[in-house]
Design a protein that fits this description.
alpha+beta, about 45% helix, five-stranded antiparallel sheet, single chain, five-stranded mixed sheet
């Protein structure tokens, strides 16, 4: 393209301009000189002019020659004059009864010494965009309706689950209390009449009734965690971890364990639920490190821009790292209940509580063979939980 003496060399630039303009899809674009004559145009503009005025446009002819409507001719001339005066602007053109809306962008063409030698315009067809917006609005309304229906269904299912949990707790615990109570009475009143094997079997009945009672309690807890409202407050996680360690460990265990509590950050959360998280994780660390020489438990935290990772490390018996993904599933035990007591629901409860707070859980074996269990919570400003 050559600019010389303030004039635009059409002959040497037509192919280049047409190539450039032809590769601008979804736009109607043309360039005019100061006499409103076409310097270049693309096929979209050619087609638009043919459809509007039944005319085949040519280079060197004035754009105004193709407009028989006086008002549109005046509007177009006014826009070109504003552009030739050095103004860049955007305007809209709508046709009554048509769904085509054009957004016209006007830009001066500068030659040597910043002299304005013409006007450049391209128009985006907003009709398709508007149709897409209307379609999106319809889809949004449909999605809202589906969400309402889904919410109602979810509320009904939650109510059914809560009803089931209540029945489970009431209807199953009553006979278990009877089994435990009568087993104790039989053992107390008729124990001397039973031989050692009879007493042992009666004790097994009582012990298993207690285990089932604990299991039902854990199942009801998991059910209620998913539906109970959160009551978030600002929590000193360091104080909570220390308190739960003293609650979970007996004085004898505390004297045998080297307990290290790091300087861990506060967070926003439901204190009742997060006490269960710390309680279950610390109880596991105490339980699975029993009998190990030099027992140690470390509570730590690592903070990133979006979340805080809280964790517990111990030098207990550990687990097979290949099955770490199973640990937080309900009733997924990697150790026999004969070796270590428990219902197999503790870590599932931890996962459910942490996920309700928008966090994640995990576990692994460190290089020094210590066991690590961790959970994350969003940082205070990103938690999404509002303080009362």
């Amino acid at each position: 393209m050559s600019l010389s003496g303030g004039e635009f060399d059409v002959a040497s630039s037509e192919d280049l301009l047409r190539s450039i303009l032809g590769n601008l899809p979804n736009s109607i674009l043309f360039a005019l000189d100061r006499e409103y004559r076409y310097l270049a145009f693309n096929d979209n503009h050619r087609a638009a002019m043919l459809a509007a005025w039944k005319s085949t446009i040519r280079l060197g002819y004035s754009i105004l020659d193709y407009m028989s409507t006086g008002s549109l001719r005046a509007l177009t001339k006014a826009s070109i004059d504003r552009t030739l005066a050095g103004e860049s602007f955007i305007e809209r053109q709508e046709q009554a009864g048509a769904d085509t809306v054009l957004e016209l962008h006007w830009q001066p063409i500068f030659g040597e010494n910043m002299l304005i030698i013409g006007a450049l315009s391209f128009a985006a067809d907003l009709g398709e965009l508007q149709r897409a917006i209307q379609k999106a609005e319809k889809l949004e309304l449909e999605l809202d309706r589906l969400m309402v229906d889904h919410g109602a269904l979810l509320a009904a299912r939650t109510k059914e689950l809560e009803s089931f949990a209540s029945s489970l707790s009431h209807d199953l615990k009553a006979p278990l209390r009877a089994i435990t109570g009568f087993s104790s009475i039989v053992l107390e009143d008729y124990g001397p009449a039973l031989d050692g094997e009879g007493q042992r079997k009666l004790a097994i009945i009582s012990e298993n009734a207690l285990k089932m009672n604990a299991l039902i309690t854990d199942l009801v807890t998991i059910t209620r965690i998913g539906s109970a409202a959160l009551h978030p407050v600002l929590i000193s996680m360091r104080d909570m971890a220390r308190a739960m360690y003293h609650e979970a460990a007996s004085p004898e265990e505390r004297s045998a364990i080297a307990f290290e509590l790091g300087d861990i950050p506060d967070c926003i959360g439901d204190p009742t639920l997060l006490r269960k998280v710390w309680g279950n994780l610390l109880a596991n660390a105490i339980k699975f490190s029993a009998g190990r020489p030099g027992r140690s438990i470390e509570v730590f935290a690592d903070a990133s821009a979006s979340e805080i990772k809280y964790g517990i490390r111990d030098n207990g018996v550990g687990f097979n790292d290949r099955y770490a993904h199973k640990l937080f599933k309900l009733f997924s035990r990697l150790h026999s209940c004969m070796e270590y007591a428990g219902t197999g629901a503790g870590l599932a409860i931890v996962r459910r509580i942490v996920e309700r707070h928008g966090g994640r859980v995990g576990a692994g074996i460190l290089k020094d063979q210590r066991t690590e269990f961790w959970f994350t919570l969003p940082r205070t400003e990103a938690s999404g939980l509002e303080l009362p």
